[in-house]
Design brief:
Layout (H helix, E strand, L loop, with lengths): L2 H13 L2 H7 L4 H15 L4 E3 L4 E3 L1 H28 L3 E8 L8 H11 L2 E8 L2 H10 L4 E5 L7 E10 L1 E5 L19 E4 L6 H13 L5 E5 L3 H9 L19 E5 L5 E9 L5 H16 L6
Parallel strand pairs: 3-4, 3-5, 8-9
Antiparallel strand pairs: 1-2, 5-11, 6-11, 7-10
Helix pairs in contact: 1-2, 1-3, 1-4, 2-3, 5-9
């Protein structure tokens, strides 16, 4: 049963005249009459009674009219739904993220995305970069937000933003009153940091920066999570060089200061090259827009 036959039948039922109905649906009268006969043959019962002056619906035709209108409405809804899906306005998105981004950027990006695309279901999963690469390959997540490098060549990677490092010091530290620090100012200070195996690229970049400044940081305490590291700073265990986004974590006893000529850390999105879903494209655009306009204040 073709949708055009239903449209022709509805037009005839509402106009009650073959000529006017034909004009309404932009066909000649003979084509409309043929369409109605084909529809009646397919349904198996007469739907209209014909006279020289007016066309009237049979009882079967009245009943069929209700279903025909509902069918066309559902078909139109399906078309609109397909267009919305193609624009990324409906669907499901599973986002993997490294833990630190929960404090800098991710909550705002997800909030803006949900406001703009309320019919896309968003699920968040905190995973290390290595776990995200595995989850992307297995289809468990749609997109991963992480720091470089991304090792799997099958994954597409887009840099969303680049963030500098800052210094996190105990509020009681002698340097806490300074407006800006050089990395050399931290030579001789005890450091707290991630274990290298969790954030190898981040760890190595900080070490290279310090070596270039003439010293090797002495990491006296390791922790896996940003809040724990900042708590260690507040407890005066050592200093830390987080990405500027993490300075959004306002913790009593911690002072954040900008650093001169700091390394820039790439925050990237990764996804399977063959899985460029419309909802993913929409999410990446929202992330790019927000990250490029956001300013992470120092506390």
């Amino acid at each position: 049963m073709e949708l055009r036959h239903l449209r022709h039948f509805i037009a005839l039922a509402e106009e009650g005249h073959f000529g006017r109905a034909a004009e309404r649906v932009f066909v000649v009268q003979q084509a409309l009459s043929s369409s109605i006969r084909k529809l009646e043959d397919e349904v198996g019962v007469p739907l209209v009674t014909r006279s020289t002056r007016r066309v009237e619906l049979t009882p079967a035709g009245h009943a069929f009219l209700v279903g025909a209108r509902e069918t066309l409405e559902r078909a139109e809804e399906a078309v609109q739904q397909a267009h919305r899906a193609a624009r990324g306005e409906v669907g499901r998105l599973t986002v993997g993220f490294v833990g630190g981004l929960a404090f800098g950027g991710l909550p705002e990006i997800v909030r803006v995305f949900r406001e703009r695309y309320p019919d896309v279901s968003v699920e968040l999963r905190e995973l290390t970069a290595g776990e995200q690469e595995t989850a992307l390959r297995s289809g468990q997540i749609t997109v991963g937000l992480m720091l470089l490098p991304v090792h799997d060549p099958a994954l597409a990677v887009r840099t969303l933003w680049r963030e500098p490092l800052v210094a996190a010091l105990p509020a009681t530290h002698a340097l806490a009153g300074r407006g800006q620090l050089s990395i050399r100012d931290l030579a001789g200070e005890p450091f707290v940091f991630f274990p290298r195996h969790l954030r190898a690229a981040y760890f190595d970049q900080v070490m290279r920066w310090c070596h270039a400044a003439g010293f090797t940081p002495q990491v006296t305490q390791e922790a896996n999570e940003i809040p724990t590291l900042l708590s260690l700073v507040a407890a005066e265990v050592g200093v830390f060089t987080p990405i500027r986004f993490f300075s959004r974590v306002s913790l009593p006893g911690v002072c954040y200061l900008p650093l001169e000529d700091p390394p820039l850390i790439d925050i990237v999105a990764a996804w399977e090259r063959e899985r460029a879903e419309p909802a993913l494209s929409a999410f990446l655009e929202v992330a790019r827009e927000w990250l490029q306009t956001a300013q992470a204040p120092l506390h």
